[in-house]
Every structure is written in structure tokens, then in C-alpha cells.
Amino acid sequence: MPVKLGANRYGKAETRLVRVVRDGPVHHIKDISVTTSLSGDMEAAHLTGDNAAVLPTDTQKNTAYAFARRHGVGQIEAFALLLARHFVESQPSIHHARVEIDEYGWRRAGPHSFVREGGEVRTCLVHHDRDGRSTVVSGLKDLVVLNSTGSEFHGYIVDDYTTLQPTTDRILATAVSAQWRHTGDDSAYEPSYEQVRNALLDAFADTHSLSLQQTLYAMGERALKSAPEICEIRLAMPNKHHFPVDLSPFGLDNDNEVFYAADRPYGLIEGGVLREDAPDAGFAWE
Ligand SMILES: O=c1[nH]c(=O)c2[nH]c(=O)[nH]c2[nH]1
């Protein structure tokens, strides 16, 4: 039975890198995790073990460290583009580079002291190919938010297995994962990130929710309206259920004041919002 090599890529996952910038006694830090994936002329490597076309994953890791020293680490999207273009443009056997970076935030606590931000992780996903095409997706994950009212859920299908009671006042809580696609590859990524993050939070806070699906769409729509440089956003939001505890055995009422914060299972609501005229995404999300 004849077989052939299918889609493949290889690289170094989660290279942890901290870059310190020394501005006299005042230091600045950038804390990132870099994942590189390369693809190209890899038939021989898989079929015969000939590694002539393989840029080792160890070298990919070293390049991230060397580039951090040589170029600094500014906006993660720009650093990812720098790496992706380097791999494709310096190695004829590499036709495509995918670079993913997560950035962990630190808050200043002194000239050279920092406290790790407990909040969200900033992310990016960049592709570059040998035809010179680049795509940039920015994002965030683990942005945990909660509305203690302003959320209803009713009017859903009721079948033989439905036990859920309709509610006109519940807690709505989620950990937002969002990724948004830039139309071009030269956005002002830092202000763009702030703009989109604020839009997501504002829409979460001021949308009177009839479902997490409706809130998701409102957040995506607000993000697109706030940031003209992006054309598509994808959101994944777990419904972190909060169930009112039955306190009647103790002779107590519970008017939406005491909740059991369930861990799992959780609803998982996922969806995208895009401009009607968004250009084709190509390999941007791969
Ligand atoms: O906002 C919600 N959407 C659902 O689809 C759903 N399903 C469910 O049980 N609770 C909820 N809440």
C-alpha cells in the first residue's frame, strides 16, 4: 500500500526568555515564551533520515536568545516577525515559519524589582512564507472577568433531559481567550492591544447578557469597531458556572448572595466576528 508524507512542521516549543534592559539603576524586563515551527523541504529528513535541510530546533532556540540580545524584545509581534523572516530568508530549505509568543506581565515594584501580574497573558501568532507573505494575529488568554448581575438565561430548548431552571439574574463569569487578526503586518501593536483589551472589557461590563453567546458577539463587535487595523477576532469563553447554594436546610434564604463556584464541567462558548470585507485569512490561524 503506497503512502506518502503529509503535512509536517518542526521547531522548538516554549523557549522561555527574559530580557533585561538596564537603564542605569532602573531596569525593564520582558518575559516571554517563544515557539518556532518551520516547514519546507523536509521529505528527505522524514523518508531517509538525511538532515541536510534541517535547521536544528536547538539553533532555533539559540536564535531567539541571540536576537533578544542583538535587537531587544519590543512588541512581541515585531519580535516574532523578525524571527520568522530570518528563518525563511536565511535558509533556502525553509519555506514557511510560524512563530508564537506568549508574554507574561510584570508590574514595577522598585527600580529593579517586579511583581508578576496575576492577570492575562498576551499572545501573538505570526507566519511568514517564502513568497514574502506575513500574517499577524494578536491576542490574550486567561483574562478572568465576572458580572455579579446583568445576566439572564432563559428561552432555551426544554426536552426530556432538561433540568436547568431559567434565570433572570445570575453571575456571569469567564476566562476570556481572544485572538484577533491584523489586516496588514505593520500595526502599532502596543496601542492596538490596549484598544482591543479595553473594548473587550467594556463590552463585557456593559452588555446586559441574555447568554454568553450574545456577550461574546458584543465583545467581538466592540473590538472590531475600536480597532480599524484588525479584521477578525475569535473568542473562546468558558462559562464559569456559579450556582446559588440551597440554604433552606439551615432556615436561611439565599437571594443570589451565596454561590458555589463550580470548577467543571463548564460550558465552552466559542465564536468569531469578522468584518464583512475581511480579506482571506490564508494561513493566519494555522
Ligand atoms: O450563556 C449560556 N449559554 C448556554 O448555551 C448555556 N447552556 C447552559 O446550560 N447555560 C448556558 N448559558
UniProtKB/TrEMBL annotation:
<feature type="binding site">
    <location>
        <position position="170"/>
    </location>
    <ligand>
        <name>5-hydroxyisourate</name>
    </ligand>
</feature>
<feature type="active site" description="Charge relay system">
    <location>
        <position position="241"/>
    </location>
</feature>
<feature type="binding site">
    <location>
        <position position="239"/>
    </location>
    <ligand>
        <name>5-hydroxyisourate</name>
    </ligand>
</feature>
<feature type="active site" description="Charge relay system">
    <location>
        <position position="12"/>
    </location>
</feature>
<dbReference type="GO" id="GO:0019628">
    <property type="term" value="P:urate catabolic process"/>
</dbReference>
<dbReference type="Pfam" id="PF01014">
    <property type="entry name" value="Uricase"/>
</dbReference>
<dbReference type="InterPro" id="IPR002042">
    <property type="entry name" value="Uricase"/>
</dbReference>
<keyword id="KW-0560">Oxidoreductase</keyword>
<feature type="binding site">
    <location>
        <position position="153"/>
    </location>
    <ligand>
        <name>urate</name>
    </ligand>
</feature>
<feature type="binding site">
    <location>
        <position position="170"/>
    </location>
    <ligand>
        <name>urate</name>
    </ligand>
</feature>
<feature type="binding site">
    <location>
        <position position="57"/>
    </location>
    <ligand>
        <name>O2</name>
    </ligand>
</feature>
<comment type="similarity">
    <text>Belongs to the uricase family.</text>
</comment>
<feature type="binding site">
    <location>
        <position position="239"/>
    </location>
    <ligand>
        <name>O2</name>
    </ligand>
</feature>
<feature type="binding site">
    <location>
        <position position="153"/>
    </location>
    <ligand>
        <name>5-hydroxyisourate</name>
    </ligand>
</feature>
<feature type="binding site">
    <location>
        <position position="213"/>
    </location>
    <ligand>
        <name>5-hydroxyisourate</name>
    </ligand>
</feature>
<feature type="binding site">
    <location>
        <position position="213"/>
    </location>
    <ligand>
        <name>urate</name>
    </ligand>
</feature>
<keyword id="KW-0659">Purine metabolism</keyword>
<comment type="pathway">
    <text>Purine metabolism; urate degradation; (S)-allantoin from urate: step 1/3.</text>
</comment>
<dbReference type="GO" id="GO:0006144">
    <property type="term" value="P:purine nucleobase metabolic process"/>
</dbReference>
<feature type="binding site">
    <location>
        <position position="239"/>
    </location>
    <ligand>
        <name>urate</name>
    </ligand>
</feature>
<protein>
    <recommendedName>
        <fullName>Uricase</fullName>
        <ecNumber>1.7.3.3</ecNumber>
    </recommendedName>
</protein>
<feature type="active site" description="Charge relay system">
    <location>
        <position position="57"/>
    </location>
</feature>
<feature type="binding site">
    <location>
        <position position="57"/>
    </location>
    <ligand>
        <name>urate</name>
    </ligand>
</feature>
<dbReference type="GO" id="GO:0004846">
    <property type="term" value="F:urate oxidase activity"/>
</dbReference>
<comment type="function">
    <text>Catalyzes the oxidation of uric acid to 5-hydroxyisourate, which is further processed to form (S)-allantoin.</text>
</comment>
<feature type="binding site">
    <location>
        <position position="58"/>
    </location>
    <ligand>
        <name>urate</name>
    </ligand>
</feature>
<feature type="binding site">
    <location>
        <position position="57"/>
    </location>
    <ligand>
        <name>5-hydroxyisourate</name>
    </ligand>
</feature>
